[in-house]
Specification:
- The chain is an alpha+beta fold.
- It has one domain (3-178): Beta-Lactamase.
- 46% of the residues lie in helices and 18% in strands.
- It has helices spanning 3-26, 31-45, 73-79, 91-97, 117-121, 155-178; strands at 50-57, 63-67, 101-103, 126-133, 139-147.
- The chain has a five-stranded antiparallel β-sheet with strand order 2-1-5-4-3.
- Strand 4 and strand 5 (139-147) form a beta hairpin.
- Helix 2 (31-45) runs antiparallel to helix 6 (155-178).
- The protein is globular, with a radius of gyration of 15 Å.
- Pfam families: GAF_2 (PF13185).
- InterPro entries: GAF (IPR003018), GAF-like_dom_sf (IPR029016).
- Residues 26-178 form the GAF domain.
């Protein structure tokens, strides 16, 4: 496949996911259903080499699973209710700092000291996370991506999540107002 064809295909997958998620959001679909459209797009674009996870901050300020359809339930139970902390993991650090956090290798990152056994046990070696921010710039969640090898995200992967993130932030914000 030619590079321009791949770019057009990526753009189509991202645009279709945004459109489906926004349609579901407008219809009042459950938050997990809306966010699953976005995580699914990231996983589709990676051809199965990454796993995506969206965590949402609850009213207590704790990270809760928004949509992580390819992560095992026991893993999600272990990370449920993490408090944003710049010194813990990737998503907790992104939620605390409001900045993208890269963890190319769980073994080499001290932020994963207490938790590294969890992703390593299910075959992941690295991850990155983008904070999700509402219209006022407040962090409402994170969009994380796990890798089966030690690496950083590609520029294209960052672009894809950047395009999907605003819809995820709107969905989380709208859901929080309804609860």
């Amino acid at each position: 496949m030619h590079a321009n064809d791949r770019t057009a295909e990526r753009d189509h997958v991202v645009a279709a996911a945004v459109q489906r998620a926004e349609s579901l959001l407008d219809r009042g679909a459950p938050l997990r259903e809306v966010l699953s459209q976005l995580t699914g797009a990231v996983e589709t674009l990676s051809n199965g080499t990454t796993v995506a996870s969206i965590l949402a901050l609850d009213r207590e300020g704790l990270l809760r699973n928004g949509a992580s359809p390819s992560l095992p339930a026991d893993y999600l139970d272990q990370i449920d209710r993490l408090r944003p902390d710049p010194a813990v993991g990737t998503c907790a650090a992104a939620a605390a700092t409001g900045r993208i956090v890269l963890t190319p290798d769980f073994h080499a990152d001290e932020k994963w000291r207490e938790l590294r056994h969890l992703p390593l046990a299910i075959g992941f070696r690295g991850a990155w996370s983008m904070p999700l921010k509402d219209e006022a710039g407040r962090v409402v969640g994170t969009f994380g991506t796990y890798f089966r090898e030690s690496r950083q995200p590609t520029g294209q992967e960052v672009e894809d999540v950047t395009a999907l993130a605003p819809v995820a932030a709107r969905a989380i914000s709208r859901h929080a107002r309804r609860v």
